[in-house]
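The data are quoted verbatim for reference:
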Amino acid sequence: MNPRTTRTLRATALAAVVATATAPLLSSPAATASGPTAATSADPGWVTGTVVDTDGKPVEGALVNVLPPREIPELGLLDDRNQRWAVTGADGTFRVRQDGRGFLVQVCDAEPDAGATCRYPSDADHLVRYVGPDGAFDSWLQHTDIYDAGSSNLVLGEVEVQPPARIEGTLEGARNELIEVMRLNDTAALSGRTDADGSFVLDGLAPGSYYVRAGGYGTVPWQSEVVTIDAEHPGHVAGTLEAGTTLVGRAFDEATGAPARRTEVYLTQADGTPIASLLTDRDGGFRFTGLTPGDYQVGQLRQGGAFIPRVEDVTVGSEKEVRAHVALRRGASATFRLRGTQGRVDNELRDSTGEVLYPNVIREDGVATYPGLRPGRYTLVVKDAVGYAVRSFRVRGTTTKELGRLELDRPLLTLRGRTAPNAVVEATTSDLCPADSPFEQGGFHEIEKADAQGRYVIRGLVPGEHWMVAADAFPHDYAPICHDDVVLKGSRRFDVPLEEGHTLTGRYVYAGTDLPVITGLGYDVQYPAGQVTNPTSEHPTVGRARFGTGEFTVTRLAKGPATGGLAVTGYDDAYAPSLWFFFPWQVGTPYWLEAEQVPLDITGDIDLGDVELELKGA
């Protein structure tokens, strides 16, 4: 599920349950201490049964949850007040209230003193189990139907839970290393760590086929062959985590030869994409391990510290070690002091092209210092709640520039215009356009909401040639847009019109049936990268299946080519509940659901009809 809605539990499903629903009981076992004791004539009936182990012995302390579609497949965070859960006593019996919206029955080991929460898989004695009209399975993914609520009691008889399966082994060279159990679609099912000797046991897995992977963080990535496991047949894997090629070097001041101590050095791909960073030691030394053959860069990548950014090209072949030294040139430093200010103080140091080098560098005493400047012209812009100041200066050599005291006495600028009704308009010097571009931090950011006629006013701005102005009318049906490099030399008008968005609808069904998916999976529409109308991470173009109906709606779609498919991207920034969805797999099990990815040409509203989901990993 989207990480904003539930904590990640490395959980798994329980193995075989014996019985399914039978005829209603005329009398029911007594309710446990956790459950309700009486029902009115208007209430749904009870779900009753007995949890037993593989020897047929009652299981004490088993948690039984009745999960309506909205809560499938939650393993925790259930509302303790819902009265749809119970913990079995010494005789293994349970009685829980049905849910009027339809439901599955979840059985797992209870987490002590944590309400309706399943125990962490690696600490549990039994696997999770889901029981429904189809039968009893390791995972909710194997179910295609849910129980309808009724006034009669639903009798499950004996629900058999089984011990978990595991994978164990030794990975030489992996000391306290992260290690993951992977499904065959390359998603992580469970994770753990090796011990100091590289040994590991990954417990809490449902029977099935998996592989294990590790490395990639200072070592060469490693993965095992596929292993098929069950409780009686654990998986055994062994391997070696290789260090790969080691890059060793030294960063130093090219003018004096002195070491560049405590300087951040980056290792990047040949195109500048960062891989790792570290601080040099007292001799300016650095060491990166785990490199594979290819082209890299190493050096000071970003503005900061006493030295001017500089990188060196490195080519790695089959050798065990390569060396690359980075000669850095010390830059100039500029310092300013503020006079009395009011409210929040924002500031930027910009280079001659207007790009932001340092955003919001200021101490509590009102002093800001900008080191590592190469020769050239710079502009300092500072504002508080009342006014702003601009100071331009030139750097020659490595001298320190004292810019004196700044008086923030210039009136702040205003941006006004028209957009969609009630849209949010933001103006910022951060680089956020397109929305999927790499983020670069600026020092100024203001945001306001338009009125019902679409009129907006943003105050408190300063001059600049690289403002981004964007608008988003979520949840109203308009496609967002951003405008980069908007020039502000004074207060001005800038309209941000939004096009009405298009809508995509469909219904998830299980392959070969017309049965709707039972829980809230998502449908995701994604666009080619780099478009100014691409959705933001806060408001992705995702629609969640309406629980129990399989029906989904995706709104605010911009025109143009796109791709639609089952949502598998975790949008951590999405804060609207309508954009939260469950992932199409379950932690600790080998299963996942798939749907065909389809190309879309968005020129109007689209109805996909039934979208089939196939169960994989069985």
Observations:
- The longest strand covers residues 606-616.
- The CA atoms of residues 417 and 495 lie 5 Å apart.
